[in-house]
Queue: 2 jobs
Job 1
Amino acid sequence: MLGNDHRRTRVANAYFSLFMAVGNIFGYATGSFSGWYKIFPFTLTSACNADCANLKSAFILDIIFIAITTFISILAAKEVPLGSRDRSAPFAEEGHEHSGQAEEAFLWQLFGTFRYFSGTIWIILFVTALTWIGWFPFLLFDTDWVGREVYGGKPNEGQNYNSGVRMGALGLMLNSVVLGITSVFMEKICRKWGAGFVWGLSDVLMALCFLAMILISFVAKNMDYIGHDLPPDGIVIAALIIFTILGVPLAITYSVPYALISTRIEALGLGQGLSLGVLNLAIVIPQMIWWDVYVSFLQLFLQSTRSTVVVSVGSGPWDQLFGGGNSPAFAVGAIAAFAGGLIAVLGIPRSSTQKPRAMI
């Protein structure tokens, strides 16, 4: 995945998205199943009801699979520790000293690459930041949105909210199915239309999906089933369709930015690992800013209402500050995604590699 051939990098990231989608399908499928407490009956106690037992069962499954994958990783990677390699090599002390200097200089190397970046690379980093600002509200509130605004429930009050969360997990499973299918065709699509153009269109599609979620929230709020009945099938199907469609831009987000940055970085000779690390900064820095804003809103709400933390961090301060629902968060995501899409389409040069036509 860190090779110098940008086409192979793009294919490798597509395969990464594919296998991650397979894992997500099974993971979200387990989340949509409500009978885990029957398979692990010891999780059901007087202090832990069925919903609590299902959650504990999910944690048990997590522990099992993490242990298995850790064991496989340790056995499969036949690596020699750097310390032992240095001690066995001649001039070990010099090598150890050089290694220490390299570790100390790493951050300087990381930030020192900035001065070599071209305008296109900065555009890619900026679009990456906007794209992930768009994704964070969805990743935070996806199943909560279904439970609250589609099913009209509240945590720990009746079964509507829990039913909505399970339906949201089903939607995320369908999302992962589409993610995997899109990953298979990613290379052909990017070769035909250009990676930057495909990325821009996917961000615009993501923005439209978020706007559709806001519209569904508005429609559901003005119907009379909220609070005493399950939602109509049409509302639920519309929510599932949106979750499913979002699998397309998610697959592109997982692969195309890395391929684009690899293409531009190769000519600079800076090293793929270091440069892709810089791309990851464009992902985590907006995430830190988003969480800072999120927590600030929570603190503001708690101070203004003299409430307790029981108000629930999970419900989100957006619900109380803006008069109900997760729509303001999705609106922020839609604006960021749409802006990122326009910048990607207009600012990233088309780099499609179409096969030349044969001479007649």
Job 2
Amino acid sequence: MTTTPDPTTPDPTVPDPTVTAGGTAARCPVTGASLEDFPFTRENPFAPPARYADLRANDPLPQVRIPTGKTPHLITRYADVRAALAHRAVSSDVRIPAFPAMGAGEQEAAARTRPFIRTDPPEHTKIRRMLVAEFTMRRTEALRPRIRATAERQLDLMQRSGESADLVKDYANVLSTTTVLELFGAPAQDVEFFRDVTRVSGGRDSTAEEVNAALGRLFGVLNALIDERRANPGDDLMSALVSRYLMPELITRQELLSTVGITIVAGRETTTSMITLGALYLSRNPRLRDGVLADPSLWPPVIEELLRVLSVADTIPLRVSTAPVELSGGTVPAGEGIVALLAAANHDPAEFPDPDRVDPDRTQKHHLAFGHGIHQCLGQNLARVELHEALAALFGRMPALHEADPQAALDVKPDSATYGLESLRVAW
């Protein structure tokens, strides 16, 4: 930002004119410029914070203050987010001090465990190549019947239990977690365990000790699974990774633990949020719901639009510039943190006319809900299949699904890296 520093001591009884919607005033430790606190709050569960549009138009690369006290730049324009995520001078290495982790515990644990999404080539390339063949469209399509069976089983349980249920706990979380665990051949009896691990390890308020303890519990489960698959290999993904990469010593056990751990945590969390918010959106938009139920061929374009509009992984792409990065909105200097806002990009009217509307006929299908560049989400094909089967089964069985208490405030997750709901009571 270019605001001139104010050398005077502010009077605490006088409102600071630099405070704007979305946060309180803070001072950049380098320039003294006035900064806003980030992240901002969504006023509407189906749209990014209104502040994004103001920044995109008037200050597209602002510096902000995040909970760890760091002052990264936000990137708000579609073209700039896409360019930054593919830029050679933009790093994902969490060990760089300026890396804009939202929580101190997150950065400390990631620097120690080295999840591949927080690394650069060649480390990242090695792990991504190992996984990419396992997440092809053909292989994920083969999982569709099992995903549908899980959805139908949970709907049976919901209907037998009464006339209402928690859509997160009783449906979305079970389906998304069971799917990714079955993919790896992990035991799926206690899906809430994995939800709790994700809640702590991805929480902005979690300390390093809490994150390390949560990951320790997760790695304990995965270590036992690795040992089991070494002795008794099956046809699951963990068996393939153990036999093809761990046993020939092409990767270390720590690399395998970190890779499987982040894939499970990230895969189940984002899909749980998308199923829940997607169902809520359709329940509040009966014309769209009825249209897709009448014409099931509309499910794929509706899913793409829900992914774009909801953009639950909005603040996941955290980066650091290793050299000056020139974008349409300005230049990010070398050595500074970057938060590439996926929701801001996906609601950029320059790229998506009437961006807040879910439009199955939209011709612009190049949204960034799964990121862009070498770190683009590996599990996007699986996520699409899960969303399709989860929502089609849910509304096929319960077309009148609605909030049990429409007047109640939504139970938004308070400090998660992924936007979503902690719970949602629904009736049918």
